[in-house]
Amino acid sequence: MINIIWFFILAFGIGFGILSGRGEAVSKSIIASSDASVKLMISLLGIMCLWCGVMKIAEKSGLMNKIASLMRPILKVLFKDASKDERAIGPIVMNLTANMMGLSNAATPFGIKAMDQLSNLNKKKEEASDDMALFLVLNAACIQLVPTTVISIRAAMGSKNPAETIIPAIITTTISAVVGVVCCKILQRYF
Questions:
Q1: What is the domain count for the chain?
Q2: Among 26, 51, 73, 189, which is 20 to 30 Å from 33 by CA?
Q3: pTM attached to this predicted model
């Protein structure tokens, strides 16, 4: 559906530009924006490789496991059914830890595994369980300790201090995660 929407937005813009007699400006704009996009992607590639390497070192050095061991007791309180099953809580911990460290590529397989395990624990197969909804909220609003993508984009665009977003990111993602958990816990009582 989103592809159709984007198609119509682009087709309308290009068509309007051509019909209003600004076809040359439209073609120059398309070429310039394509050139800028490729330059941004190339600069992001290098920065993302650097951050992924740093995060991989954090993973291999055991830092992620230490963070996971700190999170495990908190998550056992939040997840009522998953806390009783190590096969479910393990992937949840690893997914959230990887997300916190900015390793979203590493977090995805753990998220899929966690949701699969939560689905196995779900008694009502036709609807999501409370733990599944809570995990989805925590996965979407995960606390970011190192927002690597934002830092990378800011660096690629020439920011003088691309990492200055770390503290605001920690604050805002913590608030969003807490609000999400509170909303889930309140809604669990009624639905």
A1: 1
A2: 51
A3: 0.69
